[in-house]
């Protein structure tokens, strides 16, 4: 047995729901077998597909809604159901992997993910699609933390930066490239292919995992010893919170009785979950890990990274569609430049972590990501693909530099028995940050558009000669283009000016949202500066 053909068992001195991973000491700790790398590659490919399926569907949501007869408001549940299931299963995966064994649990959910992906393409109506998307999210959500867990348990400390760089492709590259793939497939092949596209890489993933993961006996007795109060309160709390964040802006937040009720349920359930986890002897998640300096500040920075990562992927297509009139494929081509440079940069990050202090690499990454947002705070009506090119490239560089080193520093020193909790918390908080970021930006965009409209309308007064001259010019334009009644032409001129003002207000509001994202990343940068340098990540490659 090599050092990385690990054995997971439960030590008598450890809580029953935490795995102890022992490695044979006969081989150097830096030796990694081909089978281990195959497991890591397969698992990270699964995580990539699971994250990709968030953005690839969002890019084609309008086409899916039309095909299955869903309204704009109800169609949002196509994405919401996936996100709710995913965020609930992520923190559960560490414990369930012990119950059913990593091999059985990961392979079963990988197969189910492909089956539900194909089934989504065959959905005939909204209820079918929502149900299938929830099942797809529940099985796909398993792939994200399990990939992270395998990296920090199977790989020695010296090789973890390479594994985490691979994982970064799922965490930062997949959200960036999702709209590009989704837009292309929808425009050229049809929306069904955004689900069928999972099948070929999914089959490859299953093959790699089937060959590389070692068979272990299931421990169904752990089901009786499980932290069921924690499981129930967490599932209810996270489901309610995710629904509030996804639907709140559309339903006017606390002006909706539905949102108020869900908010109360989320607050009570999550409060109970915290109490249970901090008092039970065998918690579902070891929340005390957050008290460790590196992990606590790392999770905070990762949460804010999720806010900005998913927030920017959300706000950019909205801007390009609403202001510039781009279709899904055109939007995807613009966003491609936030993803493609990462394919070149991410493989170089482990070398940078050996050459430089990883905290410096994290700081530069967050600074560049923040700068890319600040580059977009002076937008105009002519601000399109050409003007967004360099901000998107800078953003890609920043994301590539930030994530893998942050993951490595945050999880340094995490014991094998706490790997499942660390993986669940780290990945759940990034996804939760994305949900918070999108909800925050939706509301912020609405409020800032209203503010700028009010300010601009004060300058558009009939008492102003410039306004009267503009109305007269537009009136004459409509008369010259077939409007016989001059009164109607004048009314159209006033409406046209209103649309111009509203468009300009939206452009200013979009600029404000990028400023807000940049500010969030500055806070993430400050959290990263508080990280302590782990011994095994010394510059120069010392271990």
TrEMBL record:
Major facilitator superfamily (MFS) profile domain location: 39-536
Query: Which top-level group of life is the source organism from?
Result: Bacteria
Q: Where is this region: Disordered?
A: 1-27
Q: How does it sit in the membrane?
A: Multi-pass membrane protein
Under Pfam families, the record lists: MFS_1
Where does the UniProt annotation locate this protein?
Answer: Cell membrane
Entry's Gene Ontology molecular function annotations? transmembrane transporter activity
What is the protein's name according to its record? MFS transporter, DHA2 family, multidrug resistance protein
């Amino acid at each position: 047995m090599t050092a990385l053909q690990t054995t997971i068992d439960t030590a008598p001195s450890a809580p029953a729901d935490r795995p102890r991973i022992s490695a044979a000491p006969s081989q150097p700790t830096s030796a990694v077998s081909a089978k281990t790398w195959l497991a890591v590659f397969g698992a990270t490919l699964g995580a990539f597909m699971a994250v990709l399926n968030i953005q690839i569907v969002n890019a084609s949501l309008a086409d899916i809604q039309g095909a299955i007869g869903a309204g704009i408001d109800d169609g949002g549940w196509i994405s919401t159901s996936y996100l709710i299931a995913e965020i609930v299963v992520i923190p559960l995966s560490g414990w369930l992997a012990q119950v059913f064994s990593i091999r059985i649990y990961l392979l079963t959910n990988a197969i189910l993910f492909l089956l539900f992906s194909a089934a989504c393409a065959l959905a005939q109506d909204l209820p079918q699609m929502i149900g299938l998307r929830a099942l797809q999210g529940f099985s796909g959500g398993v792939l994200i933390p399990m990939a992270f867990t395998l990296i920090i348990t199977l790989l020695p400390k010296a090789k973890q930066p390479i594994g985490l760089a691979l994982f970064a492709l799922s965490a930062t590259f997949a959200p960036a490239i999702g709209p590009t793939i989704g837009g292309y497939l929808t425009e050229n092949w049809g929306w069904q292919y955004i689900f069928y596209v999972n099948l070929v890489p999914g089959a490859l993933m299953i093959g790699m995992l089937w060959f590389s993961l070692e068979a272990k006996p299931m421990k169904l007795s752990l089901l009786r010893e499980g932290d069921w109060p924690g499981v129930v309160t967490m599932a209810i709390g996270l489901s309610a919170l995710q629904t509030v964040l996804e639907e709140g802006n559309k339903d006017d937040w606390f002006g909706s009785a539905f949102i108020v009720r869900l908010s109360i349920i989320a607050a009570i359930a999550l409060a109970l979950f915290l109490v249970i986890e901090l008092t039970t002897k065998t918690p579902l998640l070891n929340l005390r890990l957050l008290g460790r300096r590196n992990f606590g500040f790392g999770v905070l920075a990762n949460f804010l990274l999720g806010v900005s990562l998913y927030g920017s992927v959300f706000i950019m297509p909205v801007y390009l569609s609403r202001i510039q009139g781009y279709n899904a494929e055109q939007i995807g081509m613009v966003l491609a430049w936030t993803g493609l440079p990462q394919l070149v940069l991410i493989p170089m990050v482990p070398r940078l972590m050996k050459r430089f202090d990883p905290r410096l690499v994290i700081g530069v990454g967050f600074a560049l990501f923040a700068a890319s947002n600040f580059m977009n705070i002076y937008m105009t009506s002519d601000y399109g693909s050409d003007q967004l090119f360099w901000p998107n490239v800078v953003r890609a560089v920043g994301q590539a530099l930030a994530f893998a080193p942050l993951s490595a520093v945050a999880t340094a020193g995490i014991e094998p028995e706490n790997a499942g909790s660390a993986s669940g918390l780290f990945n759940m908080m990034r996804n939760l940050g994305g949900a918070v970021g999108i909800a925050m930006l939706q509301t912020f965009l609405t409020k800032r558009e209203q503010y700028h409209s009010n300010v601009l309308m004060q300058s558009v007064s009939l008492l102003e000669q410039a306004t009267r001259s503009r109305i007269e010019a537009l009136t004459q334009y409509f008369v010259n283009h077939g409007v016989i009644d001059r009164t109607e032409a004048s009314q159209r001129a006033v409406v046209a000016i209103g649309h111009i003002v509203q468009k300009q207000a939206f452009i200013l509001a979009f600029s404000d949202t990028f400023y807000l994202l940049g500010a969030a990343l500055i806070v993430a940068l400050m959290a990263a500066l508080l990280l302590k340098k782990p011994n095994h990540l010394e510059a120069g490659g010392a271990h």
